[in-house]
Amino acid sequence: MSLALLISLLLLSFHLSTAQPNPGYYPSYRFKSSQFYRAFNNLWGPQHQSVTGDQSSVTIWLDRNSGSGFKSRHPFISGYFGASIKLQPGYTAGVITAFYLSNNQAHPGFHDEVDIEFLGTTPGKPYTLQTNVYIRGSGDGRIIGREMKFHLWFDPTAAFHNYAISWSPYEIIFFVDDIPIRRYPKKSANTFPLRPMWLYGSIWDASSWATDNGKYKADYRYQPFVARFTKFIVRGCSPWSPRRCRGAPSSPSGGGLSNRQYMAMHWAQSRYMVYNYCRDPKRDHSLTPECWS
């Protein structure tokens, strides 16, 4: 059997299977988790944030008075950043729970950002997980997002699941339970974040756009809206790290993805991806040259 035929058959089996595939590599299990206050500080809404006594977990919530957020103590230039997150069931329309990298405070209006965002929903409809990349932000008055959205293959409100971002000078990879769901390669310095970023978590009211483009708003009859985070893995290089510093590897070879991981990503995208900015005919793709380069 030829190698090309074997790969085609494996891709077909991944596509047809409803069970989560084995990616062959599990970075979320390779590294020790961090205590909350060793890695983060409260950013806003301290009265809406509760840290367990052993600092293994944090709960943040949104009500009509405030949301809450936390921020890493240090910036990074690369690394692996993960957390296990459990979302709230029921009516959560308009509410965003986020885990992301950003330098918005250092470069307001001209920032870089790499997002994992959970878009709130209405009962009976699934959460949408949105991944996004901004490069030098909205300094020209236009926010140029690079969104890819997914419906998950599990209920994210029933248990904790792991979500992670691997960021190197060459690529960004998004993981869900160690399944790579998206790879964003560096194709040019103009389409890739290279400046230091901090790691954040937050919950906030985004009623203007979060659910069905703002059709459904946050309804505070259902408050508080709660998000729980645990098993923080923060394995990154800071701007002051020695040159030999390397973030946690994203694959057995140390960088990129293995063939098995690529097949797992194909499984996730072919079955669960619900939006890809590069395939949106309404977008101005002169602003996103990586879609056609």
Automatic annotation (TrEMBL):
Example of a GO biological process term: cell wall biogenesis
Main function: Catalyzes xyloglucan endohydrolysis (XEH) and/or endotransglycosylation (XET). Cleaves and religates xyloglucan polymers, an essential constituent of the primary cell wall, and thereby participates in cell wall construction of growing tissues.
Compartment list: Secreted, Cell wall; Secreted, Extracellular space, Apoplast
EC number: 2.4.1.207
The keyword Cell membrane belongs to this UniProt entry's keyword annotation: no
Any Pfam family hit: XET_C
GO molecular function annotations of the record: hydrolase activity, hydrolyzing O-glycosyl compounds; xyloglucan:xyloglucosyl transferase activity
Main location: secreted
Active site: E113 (nucleophile), E117 (proton donor)
Domain (GH16): residue spans on this chain: 15-229
Modification after translation (UniProt): Contains at least one intrachain disulfide bond essential for its enzymatic activity.
Signal sequence, renumbered to the chain: 1-19
Family recorded in the similarity comment: Belongs to the glycosyl hydrolase 16 family.
Keywords for the protein's UniProt record, in alphabetical order: Apoplast, Cell wall, Cell wall biogenesis/degradation, Disulfide bond, Glycosidase, Hydrolase, Secreted, Signal, Transferase
Keyword Cell membrane belongs to the record: no
Designated name of the protein: Xyloglucan endotransglucosylase/hydrolase
Superkingdom of origin: Eukaryota
GO-annotated cellular components: apoplast
